[in-house]
Write a structure and sequence with these properties.
The structure holds two protein chains of two kinds.
Chain A lengths: L1 E4 L1 H11 L4 E4 L6 H13 L5 E4 L3 H13 L4 E5 L1 H6 L1 H9 L5 E6 L13 H4 L7 E4 L3 H18 L3 E6 L7 E5 L3 H7 L22 H16 L1 H16 L6 E4 L6 E5 L3 H14 L4 E6 L1 E3 L3 H8 L3 E6 L9 H7 L5 E5 L9 H12 L7 E3 L4
Parallel strand pairs in A: 2-3, 2-4, 4-5, 5-7, 6-7, 10-11, 10-13, 13-14, 14-15
Antiparallel strand pairs in A: 1-8, 6-12, 9-11
Helix pairs in contact in A: 1-2, 1-7, 3-5, 7-10, 11-14
Chain B lengths: L2 E8 L4 H14 L3 E6 L9 E9 L12 E6 L4 H4 L6 E10 L6 E3 L1 H7 L3 E2 L2 E2 L2 H12 L3 H11 L2 H17 L1 E2 L3
Parallel strand pairs in B: 1-4, 4-5, 5-6
Antiparallel strand pairs in B: 1-3, 2-3, 6-9, 7-8
The chains are: A alpha/beta, B alpha/beta.
C-alpha cells in the first residue's frame, strides 16, 4: 500500500508488522510519536503486545533486555539525551548478545538545548556491539526497522534503526507499507536464542576474566562477518519488495573522479546536488553508508579506489575529525573530511552543490574542515 | 517538475495539517509529495513555517525550503512581520488569506467563520487555504476531498470538505 507517512509513523508500522511482543519506552522528542503510535495500537488491540511504561530510558532498555532474554520480540526507541541516559544498558544489551531493535531518532546533544538532527548521538553506540543502520528517507526507516528484527535475531546482536530528527521523523512522504501476510513471509517467528535447562539460570552473572575476553572476541568476530547476514536478509527483502537496503548505496559513482561519502537524510540532498554538478560535466558520485556497524571496509575501499574522497560528517570527534571520516582514515589514505550540519544547521542542495564544486576544484585540502554554516 | 511551497501561519491555524493534507492529495493524483513541519517554535500564536514539495519524480531532498515557488500566507497580519520576498523565488507567486494583497487572494477566514470552523475564538482556515492552494497547484478537488476525509471524520470531515470546495472555487487573482 502506497501512502504518505512520517518516519515515526512508518517505524511504528514496521514494529507492528514485525509482531513485536514487548515495547518499553520513555518519551523524548523527536522519537515520542513512534511509541505513542505503538501505545495506541496496543490499546486498540491492533497490536497484541505488552506496552511497559517506565520512569526512564535506562529502565526502557532494561525492560526490553529482560523480555528479549525471555524470548519475546522486543522494541524500544529513543533520541539524544535519552540514549545517553540508557548508555549503561546499551553496552549491557550488546555484551549479553540480546537480539532486539531500537529506533534512534538522531538529535543533537546539548547544551545548548537543541532538538534538531546531527549524528553524534547514534555514533556513541559505535564501539558497543550494536548493528547500526541509518535511513536516508521514510521508506528506508520502515524497511530497515523490519529487516532489523531478522538481522538481529540471526546474529544475536541488538539492532538500531537510525533516522534524522524532523527531516525524517516528522516529515510526511511517500512510503510503501507491506501487508501483514508479506511481512510474515519475510520475518519468521521469534526464535529463543538462550537455552534454559531444568536448573535455575542466571544471565549476565560474574564470570572469569578469560570468559569475558572470549565473549568479546566472539562478538567481534560476529560483527566482522555480519555483512554476510545483512547481504542475505536485504536480498530476501529485495526479492519481496524490489527495494535494496544493503550496507552501502552507490550513486553515479562508476565513472566518478570525485566521491562523497555520507549517511542519513541529507544524502538525498547530496544526490540532487550531484545531478546538478553532473550537468556541468563534473564527474562526481556518492557512496552512501546505510550501516556504520558493521562497516564494510573492503567494499568501501573497492568502490572508492582511485577516486578523490570527501567524507562529509554530521558528527564530530573533538579535535580529531568527523567520526565517519576518522573511521575511513583508519583503513584508507588521502581523505578530505568536512564536518557540517551540526546542531541541525540546515544544509540543502544549494549548499552541497557549492561544497562539492569546491571539492572538485581541489579547494578543500585542509586535514579537517569544520563548517558552522556552509 | 519540482514545486516547492512554503506555508506561513500562526500556531493554531493549521498550517502543518494543511501541508500534510495537500501532500496526501498530490499523492492521490499520482504525484510524489512531501510535507515538512518546521519545528522549534510551534506554539499557539507564533509564526510557524511548513513546507510542501510536489513533483512528478521521487523527492530526495529533506532540507527546508528557502526560496519557494509559492508562498501561502494564512493571516494578513503575517505580511506586517515578514518580507515575503525573502521566502520567494524570482517569479514565485503568493496566496494570501485576504480580500486584497498577494498574487492570489481567498478570504479563508470568512469561509471558516461561515462554516463555524472556529476554535477558541480563532477561525481555523487550514482546509479553506488548502482548497485555494490545490487550485493554484493543480491538485484535483476530488483528491483533496479524499485527503480531507482521511484526516478528519464525520461532521468535521464534512464541513472541512465544504470549506475546501468553497475556497477552490472562490480563489482568484488579486488586484493589488
Amino acid at each position: 500500500m502506497k501512502t504518505i507517512m512520517t518516519g515515526n509513523q512508518a517505524v511504528a508500522e514496521a514494529v507492528k508488522l514485525s509482531r513485536t511482543e514487548v515495547i518499553a519506552a520513555y518519551p523524548i522528542t523527536p522519537q515520542t510519536v513512534i511509541v505513542e503510535k505503538l501505545a495506541e495500537m496496543v490499546d486498540s488491540g491492533e497490536l497484541d503486545a505488552e506496552f511497559i511504561r517506565v520512569e526512564s530510558e535506562h529502565s526502557a532498555l532494561a525492560s526490553v533486555y529482560g523480555s528479549a532474554v525471555a524470548g519475546k520480540r522486543s522494541f524500544t526507541a529513543t533520541s539524544s539525551h535519552g540514549l545517553l541516559y540508557m548508555y549503561e544498558m546499551v553496552w549491557w544489551v550488546a555484551n549479553a548478545r540480546v537480539p532486539l531493535v531500537m529506533a534512534v531518532v538522531t538529535r543533537t546533544i546539548g547544551p545548548p538545548w537543541n532538538i534538531h538532527t546531527d549524528h553524534t548521538d547514534i555514533l556513541t553506540m559505535r564501539d558497543s556491539g550494536w548493528i547500526i543502520s541509518m535511513a536516508e528517507n521514510v521508506q528506508e526507516a520502515f524497511d530497515l526497522t523490519l529487516q532489523g528484527f531478522k538481522i538481529s535475531e540471526e546474529l544475536n546482536l541488538p539492532f538500531t534503526a537510525g533516522m534524522d530528527a524532523f527531516q525524517l521523523s516528522h516529515t510526511s512522504e511517500v512510503v510503501e507499507i507491506l501487508d501483514q501476510e508479506t511481512a510474515d513471509s519475510f520475518l519468521p517467528e521469534r526464535r529463543q536464542c538462550y537455552v534454559f535447562g531444568e536448573e535455575n539460570t542466571t544471565i549476565g552473572s560474574l564470570a572469569p576474566n578469560e570468559c569475558t575476553a572470549k565473549l568479546r572476541k566472539d562478538t567481534f568476530e560476529t560483527m566482522l562477518k555480519a555483512d554476510k547476514t545483512i547481504d542475505k536478509v536485504s536480498k530476501e527483502y529485495e526479492e519481496i519488495t524490489g527495494r535494496n537496503c544493503g550496507l552501502i548505496e552507490e550513486y553515479r559513482i562508476d565513472d566518478a573522479e570525485y566521491a562523497v561519502v555520507m549517511m542519513g537524510a541529507w544524502s538525498g540532498d547530496a544526490k540532487d546536488a550531484i545531478d546538478e554538478l553532473r550537468k556541468e560535466g563534473i564527474p562526481i558520485g556518492l557512496l552512501k553508508l546505510r550501516y556504520i556497524r558493521p562497516i564494510p571496509q573492503k567494499r568501501i575501499e573497492k568502490v572508492l579506489e582511485g577516486r578523490e574522497i570527501l567524507v562529509l560528517d554530521r558528527d564530530c570527534s573533538m579535535g580529531l575529525g568527523g567520526i565517519i571520516g576518522t573511521e575511513l582514515k583508519s583503513f584508507m589514505d588521502d581523505i578530505t573530511n568536512v564536518i557540517a550540519g551540526i546542531g541541525g544547521v540546515d544544509v540543502g542542495v544549494n549548499e552541497l552543490t557549492k561544497l562539492f564544486r569546491k571539492f572538485s576544484e581541489d579547494k578543500l585540502k585542509d586535514e579537517v574542515i569544520f563548517l558552522e554554516v556552509i | 517538475m519540482l514545486k516547492e511551497i512554503t506555508i506561513l501561519s500562526f500556531g493554531g491555524q493549521g498550517g502543518v495539517t494543511a501541508a500534510r493534507i495537500l501532500a496526501l492529495a498530490a499523492v492521490k493524483d499520482d504525484k510524489f509529495a512531501q510535507a515538512i513541519p518546521q519545528f522549534g517554535a510551534e506554539r499557539r500564536g507564533s509564526l510557524v513555517k511548513s513546507y510542501l514539495r510536489i513533483s512528478d519524480k521521487e523527492i530526495r531532498r529533506h532540507s527546508s525550503i528557502r526560496e519557494a515557488d509559492v508562498v501561502s500566507v494564512f493571516a494578513e497580519k503575517i505580511l506586517k512581520i515578514v518580507n515575503l520576498e525573502d521566502y520567494l523565488k524570482d517569479g514565485g507567486i503568493t496566496l494570501v488569506n485576504s480580500e486584497i494583497g498577494g498574487d492570489y487572494c481567498i478570504n479563508a477566514s470568512k469561509i471558516a467563520i461561515e462554516l463555524n470552523l472556529v476554535s477558541a475564538g480563532w477561525p481555523i482556515v487550514n482546509t479553506a487555504m488548502a482548497g485555494a492552494m490545490a487550485k493554484i497547484l493543480d491538485i484535483s478537488l476530488d483528491s483533496l476531498i479524499k485527503a480531507i476525509n482521511e484526516t478528519f471524520h464525520d461532521k468535521l470531515a464534512e464541513i472541512n470538505s465544504e470549506a475546501a470546495k468553497k475556497a477552490y472555487t472562490e480563489v482568484h487573482k488579486c488586484n493589488q
